[in-house]
Fold this protein.
Amino acid sequence: GRGRRITPSPVKEFAVQHGLPCLQPEKLKDAAFVYKIKEIKPDLIVTAAYGKILPPKILSLPRCGCVNIHASLLPLFRGAAPIQRSIMAGARETGVTIYLMDEGMDTGPVIIQKRTTIAEGETCGELTQKLSFLGSEALLEALDMLKNEGNWRTVPQDEAKATYAPPIKAEEELLDWEKRGREIANCINGLSPVPGAYTFFKGRRMKILRAKTCSLEGAPGRVIKVSRDDFVVGARERSVLILEVQPAGKKKISAGDFIRGYALSPGERLGLNSQEEA
């Protein structure tokens, strides 16, 4: 959280407020933790964005198994960053998957899937919010299935169609204006609001938080058009329409406010060498 302090998650806050036990083991294979779960005798374990693979000792404990809510249409985008990676890959559709967990990473049989579109210019933050509601709906439907039928109806994943969503690397956050405009816009939106894709303007780091592609052509990294509410930067193919930015040490602002506050004009350059050519 702010000030780099460790803060409790909303789930822990809810548990504490309602007097529910909250276990936070450093290692899931810890014998004391496994014993505690055995004592609870859970009918079902549900995980969401947990970040760890449950070991067999935990998977075997609940009578009805362990299910996970995953923010993609499995077997697409298995792994830690499915929302970011789906936008960065230019996918136009995504969704949520409720699946019965096994020992693999997002490999278990599917119980329910719900689909939604990814709009042009939609950011990771916006899509995450949309998928959180979709995920809760899907989980309730899955629980109704278990309640009404007494078991899960599942479909195995097609391994031949599997793709992966590894964690975002720091070097991916730096925009490369030599790439195609579509790739750059997808990167900007996929990494927004955090960690945020960035470039340099007059030698200072600046995040770009929302963008679309544009049919104009121009030199990569060069500002080729400035309007009242946005500006266009050249790329290797097509160009990038910038809609929101966050200058170094400042809050997020619209592209229009940036244009007026920094007197941006056509011909200026974004990128690592922007100071040299400013």
In short: The beta strands are 45-48, 66-70, 93-100, 110-117, 197-201, 204-214, 223-226, 231-234, 239-247, 253-254. Helices lie at 10-17, 31-40, 56-59, 82-88, 124-149, 181-190, 255-262, 274-277. DSSP finds eight helices and ten strands in the chain. The first strand starts at residue 45 and ends at 48.
